[in-house]
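[Automated response] Your request has been received and processed.

Submitted sequence:
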Amino acid sequence: MIKLPRFALSAFTLAFGVYHSILGMLNLAEYEGRTFAVIALALYLVGLIGAVGSFPGLRMRAEFAWLALFVAISVPLLMSVAISRDAAFGYTTWHVSGIATLMAITAVRQHSVLAWIGVGFLIVQTLIWGGRDVLFNSGIFGAFLLVLAAQATASLLKESSRAAEESLERAVLADAKTAASSAARKERQKRIQETLREALPILDMIVDRKGELSAAERFQAALKEHELRDQIRGRALLHPELVSSTRAARTRGVEVQLLDDGGLDGLDETSRRELLTRVARELTNIDSGKVLIRAVSGESWRLTMAAIRKDTDRPDLFLRL
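Generated structure:
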């Protein structure tokens, strides 16, 4: 795709618009009311410079759009007084092409309604001034086509801008998800490394004693084993508060299983934290039995928590969050 600098496009557009005013200046001798023609030329150049030079962005600032409409109404009125009735058509009606150019710029710069009002006034006023004879020899037909083409261009530019914004939003969202995934992966790796560092002394002790451990040492080894399993199967459930509650529950003799089946994927961090904090609080109230905490995908709920004891027919606690 060929891309042109904004300055180059603005300079080309300004030069094209100024060309019409130069034609008007070269034909000043043909006008009956030269003063009105000079005022019209000055107004046209002011409106043109304002329309082209309105920055930033594609959409023209409102005050310059209204200025362009004022010029589109004023210049034809002034020129109808300046041009004598018996003047030959041609460059003496420079203002028709000039106002058409100004309104085309206004349309491209996202003020289509004002552009059509301006060109509509130009056409009606020109027909009133010159009658049907000016329909094909004054340029008003071309003026209509120019603004129509500008309207189509404005629509394309608007759609392209919207598509570009949507593409940028998708790219930003994808980058954010990638960053979040990378951060989560690094966090899991960090937790695994920390757990392994904590487990190494126990593993070394087991090797040194050839498996002959005291009851307390066996319990600590079992805790480390469960924590290593959590790192593998729990993943997104390993929120610091839930990890702490799980360890405390296991210390009380509660069997706790953490299973992540993708139920928390795509959930924002705040909602994830609220769910896991709620589960962590519920876990602190359980003193015996078995607790299964599972992140479920493909359901209307994200998380389930079930607390079961062998001697009971129904769960002491069952939550769907």
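Summary generated for your ticket: Strands lie at 255-260, 290-295, 303-308, 317-320. The CA atoms of residues 127 and 133 lie 8 Å apart.
If you did not submit this request, please reply to this message.
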